[in-house]
Write a structure and sequence with these properties.
- With 126 residues, the chain is mainly beta.
- The chain contains no helices and eleven strands.
- Strands 2, 4, 5, 6, 9, 10 and 11 form a seven-stranded mixed beta sheet that branches.
- It is globular, with a radius of gyration of 13 Å.
Length: 126
């Protein structure tokens, strides 16, 4: 059974930092892309960041570019999201996601991701 488990969420003041982790089990994702999405109350789930299987390619939503960094530790089957200069509008439930197969490019739509974590809450106070 494949599981993605996020951790590291919490309450932080505006301007602060958090590091999210996502540990995968049940299969290896060493040859597939992984990503982070978020969903704020009353809003649709949106793409935040994605990383290629090798870690050599990344892509970000414009709203987080320059503030968030996605990385992965392939040997640990883990992906990270380092978040800095957090803003109240970053408040959301953050979800880790993984692609089940090989893709030519990092997907930014939720439909290309086959596996999802339960989510971790990030709250940024003003």
């Amino acid at each position: 059974q494949v599981q993605l488990v996020e951790s590291g969420g919490g309450l932080v003041q505006a301007g602060g930092s958090l590091r999210l982790s996502c540990a995968a089990s049940g299969r290896t994702f060493s040859s597939t892309d992984m990503g982070w999405f978020r969903q704020a109350p009353g809003k649709e789930r949106e793409f935040v960041a994605g990383i290629s299987w090798s870690g050599g390619s990344t892509t970000y939503a414009d709203s987080v570019k320059g503030r968030f960094t996605i990385s992965r530790a392939t040997a640990l089957n883990t992906v990270y999201l380092q978040m800095a200069s957090l803003k109240p509008e970053d408040t959301a439930v953050y979800y880790c996601a993984a692609v089940g197969g090989i893709r030519a490019r990092i997907g930014t739509h939720s439909s290309v991701y086959d596996y999802w974590g339960q989510g971790t809450q990030v709250t940024v106070s003003s």
